[in-house]
Design goal:
about 30% strand; seven-stranded mixed β-sheet; about 290 residues; globular; single chain
Length: about 290
């Protein structure tokens, strides 16, 4: 009798599996990210985002979780991401930036599909001719899909070169359990400011702005005068829970400092909050 019941139910299981695969097939790939190997311990993984919001991560090496993991984001978010890539100019960029002036570095491969058209770009990390927005968009995919929970690696914008320099100042506001604005700012000595909107902000995606260079150098000078380089590396006491974390980084002359502040820690210097606000003003228009 049990065998008969099993046999009778089997077609329904097969039908359900077939339906699931059919549904998966109907949802097209919208965005992909692949980080390749190098001769060191570079994280190797891929991320695939479907139009329906399905996110598939496959970790290969030098990440906390290898193998496949699947999660979801809103389909509206996927459409917004594709639009943000388009607005950044992605579909007009070259298919490869792969000059190897420095060897043994990894590549990052992205693809975006818009209205049935797929554009794929290979960027060798040592090639500094790629548009500045491209590496920020790569990090943005990681941020939007929260790959840190699988890779164990928090996206870091402080090392992204604009062709000659790395950022003089960066700010990254993290997530919380509410509707905290989540975004990052990178400011270069020549006045270039890159804003990346992640969640709960008026402008999403990557935006590159040309500011007066003295605004950037002035912010770094004020930080030095305020005592930034003498403060602790972190202020992370959880007196009040469920708040966000803000991380700043400043390079000035021969000094380098990164400070992480949990917004609920009462021990952080008041001057640190002022510095964070001054960095926000470098990208005052897009932050909302």
């Amino acid at each position: 009798m049990n065998k008969l019941i099993f046999i009778g139910l089997l077609p329904f299981f097969l039908f359900g599996a077939a339906t699931l695969h059919a549904q998966e097939a109907e949802s097209n790939v919208a965005i992909t990210l692949e980080r390749t190997a190098c001769r060191g311990v570079c994280p190797i993984y891929t991320v695939t985002i479907l139009e329906d919001g399905t996110v598939t991560y496959v970790g290969e090496n030098f990440v906390e979780m290898t193998g496949e993991q699947v999660t979801e984001i809103e389909p509206e978010t996927v459409a917004l991401m594709v639009e943000a890539f388009e607005n950044a100019g992605y579909f007009g960029w070259d298919e490869a930036y792969d000059t190897q002036t420095v060897s043994d570095l990894p590549s990052v491969i992205t693809s975006v599909t818009r209205d049935g058209e797929t554009h794929r770009i290979v960027r060798y990390i040592g090639d500094r001719t790629a548009p500045l927005a491209l590496p920020f968009l790569e990090h943005w995919i990681d941020e939007m899909t929260h790959t840190v929970i699988w890779t164990g690696i928090q996206p870091d914008i402080s090392g992204i070169s604009n062709g000659t320099d790395t950022p003089m100042i960066t700010l990254q506001r993290g997530v919380c359990f509410g509707a905290c604005p989540t975004y990052s700012i990178a400011a270069y000595q020549d006045g270039t400011v890159v804003y990346t909107g992640i969640a709960n902000v008026t402008e999403m995606g990557v935006h590159v702005y040309d500011k007066d260079d003295f605004l950037v150098t002035g912010a770094a000078q004020i930080a030095q005068a305020t005592g930034y380089f003498d403060w602790e590396d972190s202020y992370d006491q959880f007196v009040i829970t469920d708040q966000a974390t803000v991380t700043t980084m400043i390079r000035w002359e021969d000094q380098f400092k990164r400070i992480t502040r949990y917004l609920g820690d009462p021990n952080a210097p008041v001057g640190l909050v002022w510095i964070e606000d001054s960095i926000d003003r470098l990208a005052a228009e897009p932050v909302g």
